């Protein structure tokens, strides 16, 4: 379920030179790395909130972390 949410996820971004926000394409159709990061971050928060609510957890007692180090290193052509 969550994988599909990420794959089909979109978000709103403000593009350079524009005053209004625009809806991004779905993650699976996005090529812009910055837009991908924004979509992944926003969907991560949405999925986290949904799961916390579904499990009836107290949000103030939940700590999750998201990391993208390896994809960032690959994208920047860093040697590791």
How would you describe this structure in keywords?
80 residues, mainly alpha, 8% strand, ATP binding, ligase
Topology:
Layout: H1 2-7, E1 12-14, E2 21-23, H2 33-54, H3 69-75
Antiparallel strand pairs: 1-2
What would you say about this model in short?
Helix content is 44%, strand content 8%. It is mainly alpha-helical.
What does this molecule look like?
The protein is mostly helical and 80 residues long. The protein is 44% helix and 8% strand. The protein has one domain (2-75). The chain has a two-stranded antiparallel ribbon with strand order 1-2. A hairpin with a 6-residue loop joins strand 1 and strand 2 (21-23). The radius of gyration is 15 Å and the shape is globular. The model has no long low-confidence stretch (mean pLDDT 82).
Order of helices and strands: HEEHH
Helix content: 40-55%
What is the strand arrangement across the widest sheet? 1-2
Class derived from helix and strand content: mainly alpha
What overall geometry do the principal axes of the alpha carbons give?
A: globular
User: What is the rounded distance between the termini?
Assistant: 33 Å
Biggest pleated sheet: 2 strands, antiparallel
The helix tally amounts to 3
Count the E strands.
2
What is the residue-averaged pLDDT? 82
Radius of gyration: 15 Å
The count of domains is: 1
- Estimate the strand proportion: 5-15%
Q: Which segments are poorly predicted (pLDDT under 50) over 5 or more consecutive residues?
A: none
Domain GMPS ATP-PPase: 1-80
InterPro entries: GMPS_ATP_PPase_dom, Rossmann-like_a/b/a_fold
GO molecular function: ATP binding; GMP synthase activity
Keywords: ATP-binding, GMP biosynthesis, Ligase, Nucleotide-binding, Purine biosynthesis
